[in-house]
Design goal:
The structure holds 2 protein chains of 2 kinds.
Chain A: E1 2-6, E2 9-11, E3 19-20, E4 25-26, E5 33-35, H1 37-53, E6 56-62, H2 68-77, E7 81-85, H3 92-105, E8 110-114, H4 125-133, E9 136-147, E10 150-157, E11 160-167, E12 170-174, H5 189-197, E13 200-203, E14 212-218, E15 227-228, H6 234-244
Helix pairs in contact in A: 2-5, 3-4
Chain B: E1 2-6, E2 9-10, E3 13-14, H1 16-32, E4 36-41, E5 54-60, H2 70-83, E6 86-91, H3 95-107, E7 111-116, E8 127-132, E9 137-143, E10 148-152, E11 167-170, E12 183-189, E13 201-205, H4 216-225, E14 228-231, H5 233-237, E15 258-262, H6 268-274, E16 279-284, H7 291-294, E17 297-300, H8 303-320
Parallel strand pairs in B: 1-4, 1-6, 4-5, 5-11, 6-10, 7-10, 13-14, 13-15, 15-16, 16-17
Antiparallel strand pairs in B: 2-3, 8-9
Helix pairs in contact in B: 2-3, 4-8
The chains are: A alpha/beta, B alpha/beta.
Bound molecules: flavin-adenine dinucleotide and adenosine monophosphate.
């Protein structure tokens, strides 16, 4: 089985979010970048398929040179090859088109992406990619098994779960649950050394068009002071929730 | 031209989010001078949509669609959009709608904006305001394509009545095996519990509750408020509660009217995922807990004493205000 894991390079979850250039660009100053958490779960699941079922695992990212440390990290975790499509991501459609091209050329059986990137929270790329390729698609995937060319997956729905079955090739939008948090791999020294020798192929983009464009960013208005209510005076909380907040 | 809205049903009944997307589509239609058409699958009472501004319903009746299937549903909605020459398509941000929308975007060659929180501005192109960086910011996005898909965040616009006379049409679509290549084998849904996505109120517990055996505190309070239950990430990591209850930046987003956090410290990753909720209440015994900076109301106190009292008082309140 040939697996492609799509890695999106995102600010660390603790990052302070600021903007520059008249609030049109994300300010990367002092920001630490990481593998998108949803992709990290998918990558670890891919490593399981590699170890138990002899799958090969490549990773791909659409991004400029500054994303290389993030894909190197994926190599250090154990991916075999990395592909960087040398384009600045503009929107989900453009990224999906670029990745679909790589996925098709590489004849991957399973393409693992994340439910969403934690930066722009698009939740678009895997579904669009699947549709462009004409492959099956399973979103919010929390469990995945492959037997021969048949995949069985569990996906999270609102208020429950659903079990699905389909043939490869398949694209998933994965998330926590694909593997346990405690199984996430931290690159060790050996992995980091080996990653330096692994191929990181830079490919020219297909110059895909985008269909949406981020224009301007704003931040939510600062929050007012919290109203503290005495633990002995719960009636007051109920009164405030009812009359002031109109929440009950 | 018309504005098409996908109104989801569950067991034949419209979900609340369907009335919200219909209300929102009506607000857009009022700006553009168009009318709202809804596409629905196996709705028992499609006329109900007239109350929220829908003028025409395409109601698909097809037993093959009793279970949600993203590919098949996307095909149905695509056909409806084509028939109606829809230029704007509105969907909710339920798990199913988020599954569908990217497929629709490709089929219709439409630009798609997710997590939209306001009515689009059409003064200079077509611009929507969406949340980004998991609620730490907003982003104004232009959709440049001829057909536009707007994913409206749950509870961002609200349900608004707008009585309209509605014309219900049967709508037939031919489906092939190809639309069912991903086959749903079983659905495991807790039907007697409110889901986080559908809830008006969410009661959430953190590590401060010490162990799963104490979750009756959360469940009893949720029961009184007809709320969904949720938890912080470590709570689901430790297996005290299921993964499906984990909320925050890497869990489920919460955008309810009321979010009650019990024994949750308020780490940045937790707050990011719940900050779209309108009113936040925190109960924590540490006055320095960061959650107090993000909440509207707070009680500094021991959850094991405060929560049972709050539950009791709310039960009385509900009985008196029924
Ligand atoms: C990459 C990444 C992603 C993450 N994503 C998420 C996410 O999506 N969601 C999420 O929740 N977290 C997430 N986290 C974890 C987050 O950083 C915090 O560790 C977590 O939210 C803390 O959970 P908690 O508040 O339940 O526990 P704690 O931080 O241990 O807080 C427990 C709180 O309970 C209070 N308490 C103790 N006893 C009582 C009592 N008797 N009565 C009342 N209060 C009491 C304490 O004062 C304390 O404030 C993420 C972390 C990382 C690194
Ligand atoms: N620039 C990118 N390069 C590679 N994969 C990406 C990129 N952007 C998004 N993805 C993948 O698509 C998933 C969903 O992203 P999004 O649609 O941007 O929320 C991510 O979890 C990644 O797996």
């Amino acid at each position: 089985m040939k697996i492609l894991v799509c890695i999106s390079h995102v600010p660390d979850t603790t990052s302070k979010i600021n903007f520059t250039d008249n609030d049109t660009k994300f300010d990367t100053n002092g920001v630490q970048f990481i593998i998108n958490p949803n992709d990290e779960f998918g990558l670890t699941r891919a490593m399981w398929f590699k170890e138990k079922q002899g799958a090969s695992v490549d990773v791909a990212t659409v991004g400029l040179k500054d994303t290389e440390p993030t894909i190197r990290k994926a190599l250090a975790i154990g991916a075999d090859n990395a592909i960087r499509i040398d384009a600045a991501p503009v929107d989900g459609y453009q990224v999906a088109k670029e990745l679909a091209k790589v996925a098709k050329e590489g004849e991957y059986d399973l393409i693992i992406a994340g439910r969403e990137s934690i930066d722009y929270n698009g939740g678009m790329v895997p579904g669009m990619m699947a549709k462009i390729l004409g492959y099956g698609f399973i979103n919010t995937c929390v469990s995945l098994e492959v037997e021969g060319s048949t995949a069985t997956a569990v996906r999270e729905i609102d208020g429950g779960k659903e079990t699905l079955k389909t043939d490869l090739p398949l694209v998933i939008g994965g998330q926590k649950g694909l593997v346990e948090e405690s199984d996430l791999k931290i690159p060790n020294m050996r992995g980091i050394m080996m990653a330096r020798k692994k191929p990181l192929n830079v490919v020219e983009p297909a110059e895909s068009q985008h269909s949406t464009e981020a224009k301007k960013f704003t931040k939510p208005a600062p929050k007012g002071e919290v109203k503290l209510i005495d633990a002995e005076n719960i009636d007051e909380l109920i009164d405030l929730l009812h009359n002031e907040a109109k929440a009950i | 031209m018309s504005i098409l809205v996908y109104t989801e049903t569950e067991n034949g009944k419209f979900k609340k989010a369907s009335f919200e997307v219909a209300s929102y589509a009506k607000a857009i239609a009022d700006q553009t001078g168009d009318q709202v058409t809804a596409i629905s699958v196996n709705a028992e009472n499609p006329n109900e949509l007239g109350k929220y501004g829908v003028a025409k319903v395409l109601n698909v009746k097809n037993d093959q669609l009793n279970k949600f299937n993203a590919e098949a549903y996307a095909h149905v909605i695509t056909e409806a959009a084509k028939q109606e020459s829809a230029k704007i398509l509105v969907v909710s941000q339920s798990a199913n709608a988020k599954f569908l929308a990217p497929l629709l975007a490709v089929e219709l060659e439409a630009g798609y904006a997710s997590n939209v929180v306001e009515v689009p501005s059409m003064e200079d192109g077509f611009t929507v305001k969406r949340t980004a960086f998991t609620n730490k910011a907003f982003n104004e996005t232009n959709i440049n394509t001829d057909i536009k898909i707007v994913g409206l965040s749950n509870n961002a616009y609200g349900v608004h009545e707008n009585e309209t006379s509605v014309d219900v049409n049967d709508f037939e679509v031919t489906l092939t095996d190809d639309h069912f290549k991903v086959e749903v084998q079983s659905v495991d849904k807790n039907t007697d519990k409110v889901s986080i996505a559908d809830a008006e109120v969410v009661v959430s517990g953190g590590r401060g509750l010490k162990g799963p055996e104490n979750w009756h505190l959360v469940e009893d309070l949720a029961g009184v408020l007809n709320a969904a239950t949720a938890c912080s990430k470590p709570v689901s990591d430790m297996g005290w509660r299921s993964h499906g209850e984990h909320v925050g930046q890497t869990g489920k987003p919460v955008a309810t009217n009321l979010y009650i956090a019990i024994g949750i410290s308020g780490a940045i990753q937790h707050l990011a995922g719940i900050s779209a909720s309108k009113i936040k209440v925190v109960i924590n015994n540490d006055p320095e807990a960061p959650f107090f900076k993000a909440a509207d109301y707070g009680i500094v106190g021991d959850a094991f004493e405060v929560v049972p009292k709050l539950t009791e008082k709310l039960r009385e309140f509900k009985a008196n205000n029924a």
